[in-house]
Amino acid sequence: MTSLDYCPSPGLLRPREKLLAHGSQRLSDLDLIQLLLGTGCRQVPLEALAHRCRDILDRHGAALEMGHFEGIPGLGPAKVGQLIAALELARRLGRPAHLRISGPADLVPRLRHWTDRPQEIFLTVTLNGAQEVLDIRPVTVGLLNRTLIHPREVFAPALEERAASLILAHTHPSGSLEPSREDREATTRLSQAGKLLGVEVLDHLIVTAVDYYSFRENGEGFL
Prior knowledge:
The protein is 38% helix and 15% strand. It is an alpha+beta fold.
């Protein structure tokens, strides 16, 4: 085997090497954060620091502010500034004005990056009257029992943005697309709550790294 025949597995490469060998689309969110941070510190290795930053990003989503990073060892104002600037640029470039959602296949690619988390992420996608995406926000992280998700948390972003409708989504780190009993109950309960609030729930998606499940397409949870 010559050197031209050999390409190391992406899992064995450091983020910068992955970027050079395979391009940015093959990088996980953790890889991208490590590239932005550049280095860790003596007390906190780079990968551990990136994990802490990703947890904060998952927790606060679009409401992220510089103050949320305060007190993290190894994360000074310069690195926080790099993260905030990168996220703001991504928001500006990643939200085209006319991204119309006509079905799950239009939305799933924008949710896929959440699937590399070890915990389940429950998200809301708010839409305007033309079914264009307004925002995508994490509601809960690691909450296995969806009966504990309160409609107030789910519909707050939609009411704040005067959204016409929303789509629910959550990840299954296990890779299974089979809805649980709690998934089905939550879909029905939140769909009914949306009717009372005047914000229609268009669908509920289960998203994995390779596929998705649509409650609407499968005739579940919507009367």
